């Protein structure tokens, strides 16, 4: 290992020399050495003169004779003295050197001088790079925060350290010039080697471990060094120390109070890392001081109640009443456990006397799932404020150590951090490092040295800190807040602590970590340690400390008494995203109606013309795109739209009405199927683009269309968070193919399908999921509609009461809306309805692939103009409709299969005997319209036809609901047989099964004599 390190040091030596050549040495800054020649050196054996020459050269090589420049360059790069002498410019000089009486001694002296300075520079760099490996980070003193007890050879002991760099004990009192890559000297430019090592130890090997030297920006590295290396930088006033103690009192005594009152309840307390509360408050204070007005937090359940109480400042009685098992819900929804709830609160920051809004986003137990949601919400708040640099709104994410290392969404979220349409201009990540995950030892839970190593992928500095040193924690948090404000980049604060109890308060950790918990049981709390420190130094008295504790205990007791009167749970008190003014007009609730979603024809024409043109001059587009735009123009002139043009009409009309539209996902700018082309690219000028949608109206709302990273979990979570911030925006996430959402299932299951039930959180997020059996194999065929329908909250057996407000009432009561549109016009209407409804629900749309260009999948302007609306069901309108009593079979279907059915019906000449009705809105199920259709054809056999396999798709959902409506008339299934895969991988098999079920659909004797 020693030899390998020496080889490595040798390789780095030229780089170190180059840096030395740039040093700003002030010793000889006032005098020029350019006139001094090598002869002066030859006649001198004075080491101070050699050192003077060397420092002058370091300041500027032109300060010395050019022969000295060549000589020092050669020696510093490892050349032997004889070879270095060849750098002298003249044969006279060379001969003189060879014959000089003091040559050997002087050469050795010079070489030693250069080598020692390089060694000291390397030593300083070793501390900066690897000092964190020997820092005292673990409060328990039994584990290594980096999972390794190995100490780097160049940092192990003073003697070994010196030997590694070919230095000796005799060099410890020698004075060295400090390089500009360190600030340990403060105002001094030279220090003894002994003092250099002492200061490096104090900076890098105590309770703070710094990882930043991997950052490839010299200025940023220098900034961090200055914040930590400068002598005396970590000093606090007595007032700051007293504030810190008071915050520790509140953090610790809150947990103690809960433990006394509800000893058998799960609380997921913060014991063992109580310093997190003053840490978060310090970050908020410093950020507020620098102009931040809105902070959005996301965190797991550990310490959540404490954060609500002492950071967000939720009323204590509201928190305490959550422990009442007899609590009744006053609001809609099922609610959630107390350590999942969120909160929004505006208050005065007492340190800065500035207003600040704090939002803690509600989230489930699915670890780290809230990360992208917080980022999306933060981005939206910045967007609506015009805060392009993140100077007013910021996010803080709190993580657990095992989850930070283990959950892939952390990586996905980090990779959004610097993307133009997703950046939040820097997030402060605080890791509550328990050094354990539930019962799993970190050595079994991660392969990286630290749980925070994932942050290195985006060059985020990582500050590890011993959580039992509150002042070190405060300094790190102040620096983190300044870093985020200065560079608008992510930063990680790793609070290395422990978990005083088990995973929760009723868990027994001694089963699996007996030695660790023996030590924990003996561990003095951080509050007592810090109180004793301040008392011993005279900052506070014992009486003052005890009064502070008694004061907060009294506050808790009084709140506990008041909580007895809180018998009703008001979930709306726990909203993390309130929408003031949205649900009411002039103080009155909005009318539960939905106006027409159509728009004037002149608006359709105008949008269509812009969609068919290039608004910028001298902008060259691709020839193939020119043909697409000409095709659009032909459609507009014929008063028709295809799918892409209908989407254009939707977005454009909403932009005119002041509604921000955001479309995000993989390759959405062009569209996976090359149909959208919302961003035009100049073919001659690199990076020159045009978004025609932003050139529709002079005072329109902005349109954001952005290709995302190749992420589903992270990006869908981000867009969900974006949609939380404002109800007056249409936020759409499009999957590359419908089944891509599989990897974002957690966001759908935990936030989208049940967000309103758990947190009374309305959200209008739209999921565009390309779906359809095209014979392209089991991947990318099905968006798995059965999953969405299974999670829908209606009762298949409940016969509804129909009234004038049935449609809107259904929409209000549902947990989301699931549609599969068969026409561009209906797609247009359902998206506009999403905004015109007096409330917000997630919208799931199974979008087409082949229908994007299907000649029959066209809509007339007549279906989109003022007075028209979304059609939940599109009934038969052909020959069968004219004589319903003659219809023998009524086929219900949804989506693309309709076009296969009408083609086959025509081929078999059954247009009078078979009626086909399209169910466009599958959930909420249109009981009223289905009932009308069934009654219209009293003698017809009822069929449900789908292209999906029988155990997938819609049949299991619609079948019991049809029975509820039709009473005694069964509905038969026609489609593909049950299967494990979503589709066959063989094109011929696909066509065979398609023909088979189409034949069955129009075989009027297929179900005769069969019982249901």
Automatic annotation (TrEMBL):
Pfam families: 2-oxogl_dehyd_N, E1_dh, OxoGdeHyase_C, Transket_pyr. One of its GO terms (molecular function) is metal ion binding. It is an enzyme of class 1 (oxidoreductase). One of its GO terms (biological process) is tricarboxylic acid cycle. It is found in: Mitochondrion matrix. It catalyses: N(6)-[(R)-lipoyl]-L-lysyl-[protein] + 2-oxoglutarate + H(+) = N(6)-[(R)-S(8)-succinyldihydrolipoyl]-L-lysyl-[protein] + CO2. SUPFAM superfamilies: Thiamin diphosphate-binding fold (THDP-binding). The keyword Oxidoreductase applies. Its cofactor is thiamine diphosphate; Mg(2+). Keywords: Calcium, Glycolysis, Magnesium, Metal-binding, Mitochondrion, Oxidoreductase, Thiamine pyrophosphate, Transit peptide. GO terms for cellular component: mitochondrial matrix; oxoglutarate dehydrogenase complex. The keyword Protein biosynthesis does not apply. Its EC number is 1.2.4.2. Residues 641-854 form the Transketolase-like pyrimidine-binding domain. 2-oxoglutarate dehydrogenase (E1-like) component of the 2-oxoglutarate dehydrogenase multienzyme complex (OGDHC) which mediates the decarboxylation of alpha-ketoglutarate in the tricarboxylic acid cycle. The OGDHC complex catalyzes the overall conversion of 2-oxoglutarate to succinyl-CoA and CO(2) while reducing NAD(+) to NADH. The OGDHC complex is mainly active in the mitochondrion. Involved in the inhibition of cell proliferation and in apoptosis. The OGDHC complex comprises multiple copies of three catalytic enzyme components, the 2-oxoglutarate dehydrogenase (OGDH/E1), the dihydrolipoamide dehydrogenase (DLST/E2) and the dihydrolipoamide dehydrogenase (DLD/E3). OGDHL/E1-like isoenzyme may replace OGDH in the OGDHC complex in the brain. The presence of either ODGH/E1 or ODGHL/E1-like isoenzyme in the complex may depend on its tissular distribution. Belongs to the alpha-ketoglutarate dehydrogenase family. This is 2-oxoglutarate dehydrogenase-like, mitochondrial. It comes from Vombatus ursinus. The gene is OGDHL.
């Amino acid at each position: 290992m020693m030899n390998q390190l020496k080889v490595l040091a040798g390789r780095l030596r030229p780089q170190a020399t180059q840096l030395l050549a740039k040093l700003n040495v002030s010793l000889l800054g006032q005098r020029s050495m350019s006139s001094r020649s090598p002869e002066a050196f030859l006649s001198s054996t004075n080491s101070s003169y050699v050192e003077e020459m060397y420092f002058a050269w370091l300041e500027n090589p032109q300060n010395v004779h050019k022969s000295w420049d060549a000589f020092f360059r050669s020696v510093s790069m490892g050349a032997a003295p004889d070879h270095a002498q060849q750098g002298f410019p003249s044969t006279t000089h060379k001969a003189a050197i060879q014959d000089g009486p003091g040559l050997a001694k002087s050469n050795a002296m010079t070489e030693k001088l250069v080598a020692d300075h390089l060694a000291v520079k390397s030593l300083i760099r070793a501390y900066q790079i690897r000092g964190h490996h020997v820092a005292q980070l673990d409060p328990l003193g039994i584990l290594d925060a980096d999972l390794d007890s190995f100490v780097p050879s160049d940092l192990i002991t003073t003697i070994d350290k010196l030997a590694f760099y070919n230095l000796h004990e005799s060099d410890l009192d020698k004075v060295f010039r400090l390089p500009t890559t360190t600030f340990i000297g403060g105002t001094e430019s030279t220090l003894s080697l002994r003092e250099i090592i002492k200061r490096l130890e104090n900076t890098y090997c105590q309770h703070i471990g710094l990882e930043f030297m991997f950052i490839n920006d010299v200025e940023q590295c220098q900034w961090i060094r200055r914040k930590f290396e400068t002598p005396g930088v970590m000093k606090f006033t007595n007032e700051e120390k007293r504030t810190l103690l008071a915050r520790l009192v509140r953090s610790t005594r809150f947990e103690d109070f809960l433990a006394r009152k509800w000893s058998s309840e799960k609380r997921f307390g913060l014991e063992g890392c109580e310093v997190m509360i003053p840490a978060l408050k310090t970050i908020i204070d410093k950020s507020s001081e620098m102009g931040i007005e809105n902070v959005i937090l996301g965190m797991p359940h550990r310490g959540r109640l404490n954060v609500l109480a002492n950071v967000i400042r939720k009323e204590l009685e509201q928190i305490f009443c959550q422990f009442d098992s007899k609590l009744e819900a006053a609001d809609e929804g099922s609610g959630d456990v107390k350590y999942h709830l969120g909160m929004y609160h505006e208050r005065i920051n007492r340190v800065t006397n500035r207003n600040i809004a704090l939002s803690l986003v509600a989230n489930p137990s699915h670890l780290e799932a809230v990360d992208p949601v917080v980022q999306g919400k933060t981005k939206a708040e910045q967007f609506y404020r015009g805060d392009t640099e993140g100077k007013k709104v910021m996010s803080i994410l709190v993580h657990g150590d095992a989850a930070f290392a283990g959950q892939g969404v952390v990586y996905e979220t980090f990779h959004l951090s610097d993307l133009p349409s997703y950046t939040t201009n820097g997030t402060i990540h605080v890791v509550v490092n328990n050094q354990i995950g539930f019962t799993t030892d970190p050595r079994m839970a991660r392969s990286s040295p630290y749980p925070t190593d994932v942050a290195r992928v985006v060059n985020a500095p990582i500050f590890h800190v011993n959580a039992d040193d509150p002042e070190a924690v405060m300094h790190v948090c102040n620096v983190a807040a300044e870093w985020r404000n200065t560079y608008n980049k992510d930063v990680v604060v790793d609070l290395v602590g422990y978990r005083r109890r088990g995973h929760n308060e009723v868990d027994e950790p001694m089963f699996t970590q007996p030695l660790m918990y023996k030590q924990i049981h003996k561990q003095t709390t951080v509050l007592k340690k810090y109180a004793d420190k301040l008392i011993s130094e005279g900052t506070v008295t014992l009486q003052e400390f005890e009064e502070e504790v008694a004061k907060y205990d009294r506050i808790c007791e009084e709140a506990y008494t008041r909580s007895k009167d809180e018998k009703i749970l008001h979930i709306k008190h726990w909203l993390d995203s309130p929408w003031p003014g949205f649900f009411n007009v002039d103080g009155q609730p909005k009318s539960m109606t939905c106006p027409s979603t159509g728009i004037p024809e002149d608006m359709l024409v105008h949008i269509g013309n812009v969609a068919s043109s290039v608004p910028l001059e001298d902008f060259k587009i691709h020839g193939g795109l020119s043909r697409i735009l000409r095709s659009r123009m032909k459609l507009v002139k014929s008063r028709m739209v295809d799918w892409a043009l209908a989407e254009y009409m939707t977005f454009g009309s909403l932009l005119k009405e002041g509604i921000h539209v955001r479309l995000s996902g993989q390759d959405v700018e062009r569209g996976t199927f090359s149909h959208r082309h919302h961003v035009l690219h100049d073919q001659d000028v690199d990076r020159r683009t045009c978004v025609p949608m932003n050139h529709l109206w002079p005072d329109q709302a902005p349109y954001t269309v952005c290709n995302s990273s190749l992420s589903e979990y992270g990006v869908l979570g981000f867009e969900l968070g974006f949609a939380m911030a404002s109800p007056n925006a249409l936020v759409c996430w499009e999957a590359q193919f419908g089944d891509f959402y599989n990897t974002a299932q957690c966001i759908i299951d935990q936030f989208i399908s049940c967000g309103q039930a758990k947190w009374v959180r309305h959200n209008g997020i739209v999921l565009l999921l390309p779906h359809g059996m095209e014979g392209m194999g089991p991947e990318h065929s099905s968006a798995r509609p059965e999953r969405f329908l299974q999670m829908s909250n209606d009762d298949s057996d409940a016969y509804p009461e129909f009234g004038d407000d049935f449609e809107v009432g259904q929409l209000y009561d549902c947990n989301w809306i699931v549609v599969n549109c068969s026409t561009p016009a209906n797609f247009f209407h359902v998206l506009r309805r999403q905004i015109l409804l007096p409330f917000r629900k997630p919208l799931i749309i199974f979008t087409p692939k082949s229908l994007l260009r299907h000649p029959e999948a066209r809509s007339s302007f007549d279906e989109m103009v003022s007075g028209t609306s979304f059609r939940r069901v599109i009934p038969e309108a052909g020959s069968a409709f004219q004589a319903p009593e003659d219809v023998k079979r009524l086929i219900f279907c949804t989506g693309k299969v309709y076009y296969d059915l009408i083609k086959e019906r025509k081929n078999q000449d059954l247009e009078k005997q078979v009626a086909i009705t399209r169910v466009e809105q599958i959930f909420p199920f249109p009981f009223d319209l289905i009932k009308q259709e069934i009654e219209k054809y009293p003698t017809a056999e009822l069929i449900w036809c789908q292209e999906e396999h029988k155990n997938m798709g819609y049949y299991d959902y619609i079948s019991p609901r049809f029975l509820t409506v039709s009473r005694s008339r069964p509905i038969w299934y026609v489609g593909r047989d049950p299967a494990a895969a979503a589709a066959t991988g063989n094109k011929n098999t696909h066509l065979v099964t398609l023909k088979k079920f189409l034949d069955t659909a129009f075989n009027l004797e297929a179900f005769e004599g069969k019982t249901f």
